[in-house]
Design brief:
The chain has 14 helices and no strands. The protein is an all-alpha fold. The chain has a single domain, classed as Orthogonal Bundle (Hypothetical protein af1432).
Length: about 290
Amino acid sequence: MIAAATLGDKIQKIVLAKIETGKLSLPAMPQVAAECLELLRDRDFSQRKLVARIETEPLLAALLIRNACSAAYAGAVAVTTLDQAVTRIGAQRIKAVIVEYASRELFQSREPKISAECRRVWDHSIAVAQLARDLGALTGGAAGDTCYLAGLLHDVGKPIVAAMLLEAERGVKAGSSWIDPAAWSSTIDAVHRQVGVAVAIQWKLPPEITSAIRDCNDYDTDQRDGIANIVRLANALAKRAGYTTGPVDNADVEALIMIGRSMIGTNDDVLDGLTSGLKDRLTAVA
């Protein structure tokens, strides 16, 4: 094996240099999703055109109908058409569903070496997204769907960097030593946040989502109920609930929850209530 520190540092420098110069190859947003979001940028968008475009992608249509039939609309008249679903959930929620649809592909891989890890990152990200939406509603300081997307995409760089490492591994001649597991993990941890920011910029996501992806590693005392702080706390709560992407330092997680609780001004009982039904909610969106 090549020394972890040596190779890991080199890879980090290459990736960061490509980001800075705009030469990093990033996944494009699926065409249907991009076209739908472009329509939604017009406040007076044509619902007929939007529905017609969504109808060409069954998975996206199914996600929208499922959202319209979710517990949030319990007791409402049953949704039986895509047009009804679009009317019910509104433009902001539609945008969130479209980005979720687009990002799912980034967390999937046909390569056994990283497919299981991608699935763990997706499960963790969905958990963080759900909790971030709840926390956003709790504080009233940020739109719930914006918090949801920031939570969903906070680790989006991880599967992208993993795929890059796998591609680099294929370029190494048979029999040559390659990066060891420690360097593999440390490289992903070191650069995935910047890659996630680059994806958010390329996909033209709202600036507050891009900022949250970039800043959610640390709490910001100047924006106590800001989206980045909400995602940071949601991330810790998800880890405590068992939705992790690797080893967890329980003491560190509890400290992050304690700080986050103080930041947004809530208590343990409320936070416990948010996580108590998390498993059932995640099963519903799996």
